């Protein structure tokens, strides 16, 4: 069974979905089924149950939004993808709060040639576990914020929060 919990945040509810204590999806939505339908068919076959407390993932979420910017790093995550995508997602988790990288830099950190920036962009676009796999920390080298699955205002807010530009409101 996939367990889901909604955690309120300053930028809207964050749906957390976990299987046996490992986060398999997270996203800024009030409807956990929006994240559930993005899971693999095998995980969807397990069903979805909304619970009151997912434990570590929920605690880490509250701590992160209260100012402990490293809290999300302790939560185990698992998402599908090719070996390349998994390397890019692992490299994303190494980008520390308060810093940003370009898509080319992310590819380089994943041990891939700089020409793999497009693959880095694709890995960010397909990321199912935001902000635990912090694709919001990747910015285009041409400037600006680029896109974000949950909207650029959420990405801007997260980056400002991590840079100390927002008073804690949790």
TrEMBL record:
GO terms for molecular function: methylated-DNA-[protein]-cysteine S-methyltransferase activity. It comes from the Bacteria. The keyword Methyltransferase applies. GO terms for biological process: DNA repair; methylation. Its EC number is 2.1.1.63. Signal peptide: none annotated. Residues 85-163 form the Methylated-DNA-[protein]-cysteine S-methyltransferase DNA binding domain. InterPro entries: MethylDNA_cys_MeTrfase_AS (IPR001497), MethylDNA_cys_MeTrfase_DNA-bd (IPR014048), MethylDNA_cys_MeTrfase_DNAb (IPR036217), MGMT_N_sf (IPR036631), WH-like_DNA-bd_sf (IPR036388). The keyword Nucleus does not apply. It catalyses: a 4-O-methyl-thymidine in DNA + L-cysteinyl-[protein] = a thymidine in DNA + S-methyl-L-cysteinyl-[protein]; a 6-O-methyl-2'-deoxyguanosine in DNA + L-cysteinyl-[protein] = S-methyl-L-cysteinyl-[protein] + a 2'-deoxyguanosine in DNA. PROSITE patterns: MGMT. Keywords: DNA damage, DNA repair, Methyltransferase, Transferase. SUPFAM superfamilies: Methylated DNA-protein cysteine methyltransferase domain, Methylated DNA-protein cysteine methyltransferase, C-terminal domain. NCBIfam families: ogt. This is Methylated-DNA-[protein]-cysteine S-methyltransferase. It comes from Nonomuraea thailandensis. The lineage of its organism: Bacteria, Bacillati, Actinomycetota, Actinomycetes, Streptosporangiales.
